[in-house]
Amino acid sequence: MTLAQPVPAETSAVDDFVRDGVHLFGEVLDPAACAALLAELKAGRDWGEGLFLSEAEFDADPQYRGVNPRPGRNLLEGYEARLKLVEANPAIVAGLTALLGEGYGLMDRKVVCGVPASAIPPWLKRRIAGNPVNNLGAFVKPQYRDVTYFYGIDFHQDLIDFKGREADFLTLYVYLAPVTKADAPLFLLEGSHRLGASVFPHDLVQQGQTWRYRSEGREAMTSQRVLTGGAGYAAMWHACTLHGTQPDEADHERISLRYLLARGPGLRAGIDLVNAGLEGPLALDDTRIDLDAAGAARIKANSVNQA
After folding, report:
1. What distance in Å separates the CA atoms of residue 137 and residue 140, rounded to the nearest whole number?
2. pLDDT for 254-279, tens place per residue?
3. Of the segments 106-115, 129-138, 280-289, which one has the largest average pLDDT value?
4. N- or C-end of the chain: fewer Cβ atoms within 10 A?
5. Which candidate, 28, 142, 157, places its Cα nearest to that of 93?
6. pTM
7. DSSP codes, the chain
8. What are the residues facing 203 on neighbouring strands?
């Protein structure tokens, strides 16, 4: 019996995006190199409760905006040579080129940390309970804001941060260490991209491993996929694909790499074929309604925690 050969990334990536809005590379990266990079990133800094401001310090000057990595404050700056592990990987390059065309552009790359419950101060747990998006940057000491820290985030589109921009980009995500169900793995809703851009929070009803998703009179039945895998596991998804994570239940942080990559100039690329089949808009003037004027959460609701 002859085993089937893997489908090349340049062949399968566009087909997967058309159908599911997701392409899984699997454990495509060298795990030893991933472990070495992770050790360097973790060295010499606090990844526990020492990350956080005290309640008094936060209340003295609450800041909800401008607390994520940015140019000049990004832990990955200075790691360009080491990141060739990801950025020059043949399978990843082939998949990105198929979808985004030659000359695709880097919009952003950063470290994302799923923070375990054991590292979050009791006062902060009380404040964030039930929030749909627990981006913890507002509560982290300024010197550590070169990483994005999460304690669970409800199903959302990555278009959420780009008002008015068309969905001409995708997200590439890399696990630097093994991720089990307890390590805040990514939950994705395959096929959710087909309804196009929609306002967060989203209209979702769970039906086992399937979710009914509605937006502006349109409806799709989507399949839940949980991304678990070893060090070097990589996946990419469309800017309109719904995804999220539950809180980290492990006793250690989950540190990963997240890239945003945009369509290259010139000739048509695979993303154009994907977007031509979407039923809804490619862009929104307003992408979310869950924050107040200061940027703090004003809605207590979370769908992914029911999964």
Report:
1. 5
2. 999 999 999 998 778 999 999 999 99
3. 106-115
4. N
5. 28
6. 0.93
7. -PPPPPPPHHHHHHHHHHHTSEEEEEE-S-HHHHHHHHHHHHTTS--SGGGBPPHHHHHHS---SS-S-BTTB-TTTT-TTTTHHHHT-HHHHHHHHHHH-TT-EEEEEEEEEE-BGGGS-HHHHHHHTT-SEEEGGGGB-GGGTTSEEEEEEEEE-GGGG-TT--S-EEEEEEESS-B-TTS--EEEEETGGGG---PBSPEEEEETTEEEEEETTEEEEEEEEEE-B-TTEEEEEETT--EEEPPB-SSS-EEEEEEEEEPPSSS--HHHHHHHT-SS-S--S--B-SB-TTS-B-----SGGG-
8. 214
Q: Given the structure tokens 């020059």, which residue do they identify?
A: 88
Q: Show the tokens assigned to 190.
A: 């395959």
Average per-residue pLDDT for the chain: 92
Count of residues for the chain? Answer: 307
Instruction: Please state the rounded mean pLDDT for residues 181-201.
Output: 96
CA–CA dist 254, 112 (Å, integer):
8
Rounded to whole angstroms, the Cα distance separating 128 from 305 reads 14
What tokens does 215 get?
Answer: 């937006």
Q: Which amino acid is at 170?
A: L
Reference 114, options 256, 276, 306; nearest CA is 256
Rounded Cα distance, 249 and 151, in Å:
10
| Closest to 143 (Cα-Cα) out of 224, 46, 262, 241 | 46
**Cβ contact 156:202 at 8 Å:** yes
Q: Which of 238, 240, 244 is nearest to 216 (CA)?
A: 240
Peptide bond into 265 cis (omega under 30): no
The pLDDT tens digits of the residues spanning 156-187 come to 999 999 999 999 999 999 999 999 999 999 99
